[in-house]
Amino acid sequence: MQKNGLQKVLTKFSTLLKERRDEQKKIQVDKDALLPELLSANFNRLWMLSLIGSLIAFSYGLKFFLTPSEGIAAADFWRRGILLTHLALLICMLLLFLVTSIYKKRDPMPSAGVQSFLQYTAIAALLASGLALTIIDQLITSNITPFLITTLLVSLLFRIRPIIITPIFVVVYLAFHLTLGIYQNDSSTILSNQLNGLTVTIMSIVLAFTMWQNSTRNILQTRYIEQQKAELEEKNSRLEQLVSYDSLTGLFNRREFDRILEHELNRINRIEQPLTLILLDLDHFKAFNDLYGHVKGDDCLKEVSAAVLSLVRRTGDAAVRYGGEEFAVILPQSSPEYAETLAERIRTAILDLEIPHPGNPAAPVVSISSGVLTILPPSHLTPLQTLEKVDALLYRAKHEGRNRWISALEWSEAVSYGVFQQFTWNPAWISGVSSIDQQHRQLLSMANELIKCLQALDNSSACRDLFADILDTFKQHCDDEERILAGLHYADLAPHAVLHKGLIEHGTSILRNWSPDYHAKKFSIVYYLILDLVVEHMEHADRAYFPLTRSWVSTV
User: Fold this and answer.
1) Is 368 exposed, middle or buried (0-12, 13-18, 19+ CB in 10 A)?
2) Weakly modelled stretches of the chain, pLDDT under 70
């Protein structure tokens, strides 16, 4: 029993010892990896050290140079020795200052070999000058202050591995010990100084070791903290994904959907831009699951999600797994036309997946039905009211045969066509060029006529023709405007022409899709005219070049 107990204790002790040894090896490996960083820190100190060292050497040399000679041979020899030593130190420090100043302006830092050479050059210069000054001082005085200062200074300034710095200090002390008696004849003074030098050398070795340990420990702790911080951020990111994203599809989940929708509804009036919500539902997906099983059903949801996500690309747009086989797309600052185009692209993209679905009467493959609700400012809809309205549109799409989308516009009762009955000419729109101003007024007048036409219930053909006339007039206006601006060397002509092209393409799309049920879309047309042609074009884009045209007209 006792033998078994002793074996267990010995085994446990051996295990602990091995773990400790492994830990020490790991720490040593980590410290070895810190050498470049410590070398770089030493190099950065060299610039300040060389600057201060140059000033000190110059000051001491100047002081001795200006001090008058006493006419004593020993004193004169001592003064010359001190001057020559400080001159040599000054030259060395100036060279180090020059080199480090050059390298400080370069990127990247010099190689490790260059840094090591400069580092050990500085150490050699300091220790050699301290040793030389101490030996020469023995002619006049018994102090060994230079040796003490330089030895301690090296141990404090430089972070060098103890296995390297210890032999350096030992060699310097031996040189100090052997040469101290060259100019010092008093044996008791020599012995005292040798002991003091030995004490300072040991202190310097211990201090260098302590500074090395502290520096490496601090760097390792900093790295450890940074690593822990990075791991924590990664965990927080994963947690955020778990909280905000659906684990199966990778889309936003219902919780994040509620947050985004509430946020966008709160700011719709502030930014005065429309908001679109699309609610999508896979047709007869229960039958798909019953036929193929839930594993195939999950695979289908993943493919559909990827297809939806590939089409929702604008910054700020959000694709969501609303729940089960339902998806949602939130489109801030989107026109009704864009929302409808996206809904159709999603519908065709799902069909193009060609996932067989025999239980779907709407199509032989998996299909989707959608409700598309565009909310125009001002609006006071709550998230619940918004969901109820878009859900009703989705229900209509299902009721009318599925594999389709139904869209609608939602705006406050305070917004009516009466508000936009007449456009009023703004004097700030005067460019100074009579042809441009005349075309602007003409477009404004034609827009007023179109609004009047849209209020009638039986003028579809007439309204379409009027809209076509507006578009033709706008095309001619763009050509004339670009020609004039080109002649004036307008700096922003290229982006201005791109804006014209986009407006024309938008108008052409509205004209191409004009249908007898235009009354359901007439607000979209008015919205296009007001936001794009009047607000964006005349109020913002055109006014940017008005200082140029007005200045040109005033000089003609």
Assistant:
1) buried
2) 1-10, 12-13, 16-33, 69-71, 107, 240-242, 411-424, 455-458, 516-536, 539-540, 554-556
Question: In CATH, what class is 254-415?
Answer: alpha beta
First-residue to last-residue Cα distance in the chain: 116
Backbone CA torsion sign across 362, 366, 369, 374: negative
| 3-state secondary structure (DSSP) of residue 545 | coil
Question: In what side-by-side order are the strands of the sheet with 405-411?
Answer: 318-323, 326-332, 275-282, 368-376, 405-411
Question: How large is the angle between the packed helices 285-292 and 294-311, nearest 10 degrees?
Answer: 140
8-43 pLDDT, tens digit per residue, is 666 766 776 666 565 555 545 455 667 788 888 888
Please give the distance of CA 284 from its chain centroid, rounded to a whole number.
44
The rounded distance, in Å, linking the Cα atoms of 145 and 147 is: 5
pLDDT of residue 535: 59
Which residues, at least 6 apart from 151, have a Cβ–Cβ distance to it below 8 Å?
Answer: 127, 130, 169, 172, 200, 201, 204
- Is-contact 484 549, C-beta < 8 A? yes
**Domain boundary assignment for the chain:** 30-224, 254-415, 422-555
CA 290, 291, 294: angle at the middle one, nearest 5?
60
Residue with token string 């989707």:
368
The answer to whether 311 touches 414, Cβ cutoff 8 Å, is no
Phi and psi angles of residue 452, each rounded to the nearest 5 degrees, phi first: -60, -40
Of 374, 512, 525, residue with least CA distance to 451: 525
In angstroms, the CA 120 to CA 126 distance is 10
* CA distances for 405 relative to 322, 364, 369, 473, 525, angstroms: 17, 18, 6, 34, 20
Predicted pLDDT at 415: 38
Other CB atoms closer than 10 Å to residue 251's CB: what's the count? Answer: 24
The Cβ-side half-sphere exposure at 554, using a 13 Å CA radius, reads 7
State the Cα–Cα distance between residues 78 and 84, nearest whole angstrom.
10
Q: How far is CA 455 from CA 198, 350, 416, 449, 459, in A?
A: 106, 38, 11, 10, 9
Q: What is the DSSP letter of 245?
A: B
Contact 479, 465 (CB under 8 A): no
422-555 CATH pick, 3.40.630.30, 3.40.50.300, 1.20.120.50, 1.10.443.10: 1.20.120.50
- How much is the pTM? 0.45
Looking at residue 421, what is its pLDDT? 45
Give residue 301's pLDDT: 94
If you compute the radius of gyration of the chain from its CA atoms, what whole number of angstroms results? Answer: 42
Q: According to the model, what pLDDT value does residue 534 have?
A: 65
368-376 and 405-411 strand pairing: parallel
Tracing tokens 């509205």 back to the chain, one arrives at 510
